[in-house]
UniProtKB/TrEMBL annotation, chain A:
Entry-linked Gene3D superfamilies: MetI-like (1.10.3720.10)
Regions that span the bilayer: 30-57, 94-115, 127-147, 176-200, 221-243, 249-269, 281-303
Statement: the UniProt record of this protein carries the keyword GTP-binding: no
Name of the molecule in the record: Carbohydrate ABC transporter membrane protein 1 (CUT1 family)
GO biological process, one term: transmembrane transport
Topology in membrane: Multi-pass membrane protein
Species whose genome carries this gene: Kribbella kalugense
Matches recorded under PANTHER family: ABC TRANSPORTER PERMEASE PROTEIN, INNER MEMBRANE ABC TRANSPORTER PERMEASE PROTEIN YCJO
Record family assignment: Belongs to the binding-protein-dependent transport system permease family.
Pfam families with a match to the protein in the record: BPD_transp_1 (PF00528)
From TrEMBL, chain B:
Keywords, in A-Z order: Cell membrane, Membrane, Transmembrane, Transmembrane helix, Transport
Segments crossing the lipid bilayer: 20-41, 85-104, 116-136, 148-165, 202-224, 244-269
PROSITE patterns: ABC_TM1
ABC transmembrane type-1 domain sequence ranges: 79-269
InterPro entries named in the record: MetI-like, MetI-like_sf
CDD domains the record matches: TM_PBP2
Name of this chain's protein: Carbohydrate ABC transporter membrane protein 2 (CUT1 family)
Top-level taxon: Bacteria
Pfam (any one): BPD_transp_1
Subcellular location(s) per record: Cell membrane
Organism per entry: Kribbella kalugense
Coiled-coil portions: none
Membrane topology listed for this record: Multi-pass membrane protein
């Protein structure tokens, strides 16, 4: 666009000016690329090159130490047909993702509405609600691990005082995934809350006042006026929360290492094990690409559905 | 009646009960969110035998502040590693992201749109896809078991930071830049002396989020480091679990110390955090 403006003078001034402009353009290109060059180099060298390489490696049996043999789609075939941890871990990942995405957004919306009330000291509550989101997953993993202790943990000790024998939480295959999801929710609702609070605060107050004058109840005002205006933020959150939840690793690694009996084993944990536990870099790369494709397809579907429920005012 | 008067009139009869319900709900969630952290702090100050007592008591019978000096002593080298990495990450990421952000916002050069599209496209790639090949790359480069993989790739791929700073530079009035150019300032001089000070809030937002990412990184140190002496605080905490601390009270003191720096930064720079997070929700 601006290049067109710069190209104008030659038509007016003739050849000498054209030369000058050419030199100027060259210098401009050089300056521009000096500014963005480091980052473009970084993206190419540290991200796009490794991604392309991983596609090639996924077709081999490379361990990093052997001379790799070409397997074709062998790794993918093994993953889908012979690996008995793949489908269970995919199922765990799916359950974790659906529950965490839906509940973080739902609870985050509730908290955002709460924090948008005009009341003294509301800033204190906002800060408090967001604070778990900045804590370190290893540290809070330990804290929750201790709270979940079947005998001396806070939860079961408290339950005992009212005569209930609590579950074994992390060491029971039936409750382990639930226990981990509770921690993920505790830490995960802060982000949607902040995004939705910003969404709420950007809503034109006169719209809400107009609805009030028309006699709409608070409940009706929320669903008919506020909620449609929040759908762009909600759409953004369904995309980002899905991508991050589907890649859950830290909390699983710290609290259960995938156990007991693979009850909390998620997809990334399997990739980590394959690559750095068993040294199967080719196989792990194939798993990485399967994950990439799943995330890509689901995200594409979400974009397709956008028109059906997301409301853009302008 | 004016709109305002109608609003007040509509609300008035339910005013007090509604407020009470609101405060009760707010306090309920406050307890839910604070409870695990408060128990962590309470356990970190208890004598050893009291931590596993059943039923548990919230307040320690005596405050053992010594738990902190004991845990802190063991953690110190790892605290310094984490500080070093956070400083390198924040400093260099801000430099490269603001250079690129300014370039994309205000300079014209060949293939600019292509370069920007390339940058944004990588935001969609799940991190795990390039982690395995990155590991192989760093092994070729002799970077395994050094600190380089934990900051060099991060600071050279600041996709979100570049995007946020580009938005900020676009908001600076053109006149400022033109005046500097007329005074004979070079492109870099204009960027460094005139433009950079104008986007301080965006720099603070990117810096705060980068600090968090660096401090709380788990995957990086776990995969790229082998030597204990190079480890960061969170990994050291995980290692301590088995090796040094069999005592829950010391573990909780160590956990508190690990959580403290990001929490303090969040409390001090809350405004910038919220701004940074909110900006991440904006569409280009």
């Amino acid at each position: 666009m601006a290049n067109a403006v710069l190209l104008k003078p030659p038509d007016v001034d003739g050849p000498p000016a054209r030369k000058r402009v050419k030199v100027k353009l060259k210098r401009q290109n050089l300056a521009g690329w000096l500014f963005v060059g480091p980052v473009i180099f970084g993206v190419l060298f540290f991200q796009l090159l490794p991604v392309a390489a991983s596609l090639v490696v996924s077709l081999t049996n490379w361990t990093g130490l052997n001379s790799p043999k070409f397997l074709g789609l062998g790794n993918y075939k093994e993953l889908f047909t012979a690996d008995d941890t793949f489908w269970p871990s995919l199922k765990n990942t799916a359950i974790f993702t659906v529950v965490v995405v839906v509940l973080t957004i739902f609870i985050g919306l509730g908290l955002a509405v709460l924090c948008n009330q005009k009341i003294k000291g509301i800033g204190f509550f906002r800060t408090l609600y967001y604070s778990p989101a900045v804590t370190n997953v290893v540290a809070i993993g330990f804290v929750w691990f201790w709270l979940y202790n079947p005998d001396s943990g806070l939860f079961n000790s408290t339950l005992k005082t009212i005569g209930i024998h609590g579950p074994a939480w992390l060491s029971d295959t039936k409750t382990a995934l639930i226990a981990v999801m509770i921690v993920a929710l505790w830490q995960g609702v802060g982000y949607p809350m902040v995004i939705l609070l910003a969404g709420l605060q950007s809503i034109d107050q006169s719209l809400i006042e107009a609805a009030t004058v028309d006699g709409a109840s608070a409940w009706r005002r929320f669903w008919a006026v506020v909620f449609p205006l929040l759908t762009p933020s909600l759409f953004f959150l369904t995309i980002t929360q899905f991508i991050t939840s589907f890649q859950v690793f830290g909390i699983i690694y710290v609290m259960t290492s995938g156990g007991p009996n693979n009850a909390t084993s998620v997809f990334i944990f399997q990739i980590y094990e394959a690559a750095f536990g068993h040294g199967r870099l080719g196989y792990a790369s194939a798993m990485g690409w399967v994950l990439f494709v799943i995330v890509g397809v689901v995200t594409a579907i979400q974009w397709k559905m956008e028109k059906r429920w997301v409301h853009y005012d302008n | 009646m004016t709109t305002e008067a109608i609003r007040v009139f509509n609300r008035a009869p339910r005013h007090i009960p509604r407020r009470v319900v609101l405060i009760v709900v707010l306090l309920f969630f406050a307890v839910v969110f604070a409870m695990p952290l408060l128990w962590m702090i309470s356990a970190s100050l208890k004598p050893e035998n009291e931590v596993l007592q059943s039923p548990p008591t919230f307040f320690p019978s005596e405050f053992q502040w010594g738990n902190y000096s004991q845990a802190g002593h063991g953690l110190l080298p790892f605290f310094l590693n984490s500080c070093k990495l956070a400083a390198l990450n924040v400093g260099f990421l801000l430099l490269f992201a603001s250079l690129a952000g300014y370039g994309f916002a205000r300079l014209n050069f060949a293939f600019k749109n292509l370069a920007f599209a390339l940058l944004l496209s990588t935001a969609m790639i799940p991190g795990i896809v390039y982690l395995v090949p990155q590991y192989m790359l760093f092994r070729q480069m002799g970077w395994i078991d050094t600190h380089y993989p934990l900051w060099v790739p991060n600071v050279l791929t600041p996709v979100f930071g570049t995007f946020l700073l580009r938005q900020a530079f676009r908001g600076v009035p053109m006149e400022l830049e033109e005046a500097a150019k007329l005074d004979g300032a070079s492109t870099f001089g204009t960027f460094w002396r005139i433009m950079l000070p104008q986007v301080k809030p965006a720099l603070a937002a990117v810096g705060a989020l980068t600090f968090m990412g660096s401090w709380n990184d788990l995957f990086g140190p776990l995969i790229f480091l082998n030597s204990t002496r190079l480890q960061t605080m969170p990994i050291a905490l995980a290692l301590f679990k088995g090796e040094y601390f069999t005592q829950t009270n010391l573990m909780m003191a160590a956990a508190t110390l690990t959580i403290l720096p990001p929490l303090l930064l969040f409390l001090l720079a809350q405004k910038y955090f919220v701004q940074g997070i909110t900006m991440s929700g904006l569409k280009g």
